[in-house]
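[Q] Does anyone have a clean structure-token version of this?
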Amino acid sequence: TRSHWMRDSSYSHCLCCMDEDACRRVLYYTTLQGTPSSISKDVYYVTMHEPSAYTRDRLMRATLRDPLCIMVDDPSHADIQWEYDESRIQWDRVFKGDLIANSYHIRKGLIRKAQMAKYITKYCWKRPQSILNRAVPKTFVIDISNPREIGWCLSEVQDEFDDPENDSCVWILKPSIANGAVGIHIIGEGGYAQLREIIQTNKDLQQWVMQKYIRSPLLLHGRKFHLRAYVLAVGNLTVYLYKDVLALFALQPYNHDDISNKYSHITNTCLQADHPDFKESEAVRQLSELQFPNKEHTPDTIFSQLEQILGETFNVYKGDMAAFFPLANCFELYGVDLLVDSSYNVWLLEYNSGPDLKQTGDRVDIIAPMIQDMWNIVTCSLLPQKKKKASTLDPGGFRLIHQAEAQAWGASGMTLVD
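[A] Here you go.
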């Protein structure tokens, strides 16, 4: 069996960046025949399929710095399977406890905008003192179960538009399962008529979320920004927040009165990257380097809010395995988007699975050390041969924000049925 990394010419340059021992282990493995179990009982085997060269490079370096790690082609021989497409994961082995996967099988309650809104709303009804009550914008879930009865499907949000007290409200409309600013619309004076037209035009999309738009964001140098935080969930369930948080700025100065200008209001870098005025040094910064007008507030006070809000999020799904089921032998990295308003309150917008790590750009590369720390946490937490050698876990740049109560989950008890 030959390692697919050696056959992949797009990756060959990465071998030159590795230390000598890592290179030797890759070259050694490519000469082996037979099953991986014939090599050593102390090592562990990893298979990876990651189309992003940016992410693949950093993952490969992190894994092969570990002297116990061997790369393999066949997932059936692997101890850890990293897949960009979760449907490729060998879930039957995961459910039996024989394979560690980089995704949870059930987590729609967290990563789908509509589902997250429903579960957080339900959670907050029962817990009025939760920080999430003030950290999540007012949200409506729009289910278009029958396009012929769109008026009935929109009846609840129509009542919101008809309320005279909401005349000045602006809303942001997003498809429930889209990422990268795809399908985002800001609804202002057009109100209900504009909303209905958008939904009728996009008949293939059956579920939307409509959130109250935060019209007084914190501005720096006149521009709006949002935060991108990286959250790592491990097993069932320990959750970490990475210390380096990105601040992603809009391309153009914020204009409160002109909501039609997407370059002023939408801060996703993927929307701006092809614009001739895009400058990475202005669009992508780190929270830690920002200076706020109000000196009572610092990046540390904002980060403290992030820890509270993101840690509390995982309490929402406690005991509700149909929404989020943290298998003991899975882990997942999320990109979380948040916004800071002019009063320095942090608002949770959404969780994204499989985040685009390349949006950090070249100037601010927090990803390489983050992936290295992630790999250390995952292997020392989930691999028996690593756990017994690590007396204490060093989380590196990750900060512990949630620890589930001790439970003996064991294998999931799930099986795949054709």
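[Q] Thanks! Anything notable?
[A] The longest strand covers residues 223-234.
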